[in-house]
Amino acid sequence: MRQNTGNCGGRLVLTFDDGPDGRYTGTLLDLLKEEQIPAAFFVVGNHAAKEPELVQRMAAEGHIVGSHSIEHRNALISTYSYMKRDFEACRKIHTELLGRPPRYFRPPWGIRNLFTRKFVKEQDMRMVLWDVMAQDWRADASTVGIVKKLRERVSDGAIICLHDAGEDTGGAAGAPLKTIKALELAIPDLKALGYRFISLDEYFAGAAL
């Protein structure tokens, strides 16, 4: 994890896991549009199939839509054949909804097994983890607490991982509402400190220079 050295300003990448969820994701997209922030949504395949309009809206509004597995299963209990079906199913859903396969993959909980890298490479994707979390999925998370963690933990070049869904993937009921309210406060604050939100594409283009 990157450490906040006290220096303000720099680049941040905002990412969201576990959605889309019809109760929360649209409101989050409204906020990102208002703040003119590009984000990356790592969607669970089964959720994406149930909310195609939200997935298509993400892409239409300039956000990256990445894969977060088909059902958010722990890779440590997943066999080769399951992982193969998982990656193929996600590729099919993304292609049907967006006309192209996903370019980025985030493993559930960041957990990988011996086959994860193999299928990421075979499907010409890039694996993306994170530098900053704010434990926004927890039942005891608070809006103020999420804002505080973001402010204290970010630094230049940090990839932030938050959640726009998650009741069936380990998150507390209603947790994304707190996340959205926290972002309403944190985004202007971070911008005032000189941070600039960039897309994953821009982030990796810069890393290649």
Automatic annotation (TrEMBL):
What one GO molecular function would you report for this record? Answer: hydrolase activity, acting on carbon-nitrogen (but not peptide) bonds
GO biological process, alphabetically ordered: carbohydrate metabolic process
Q: Residue ranges of the NodB homology domain?
A: 10-198
> Which PROSITE patterns does the record match to this protein?
NODB
What InterPro entries does this protein's entry cite? Glyco_hydro/deAcase_b/a-brl, NODB_dom, Polysacc_deacetylase_ArnD
Known CDD domains for this protein?
CE4_NodB_like_3 (cd10959)
Give the signal sequence positions.
none
The source's superkingdom equals Bacteria
Name of the protein in question: Polysaccharide deacetylase family protein
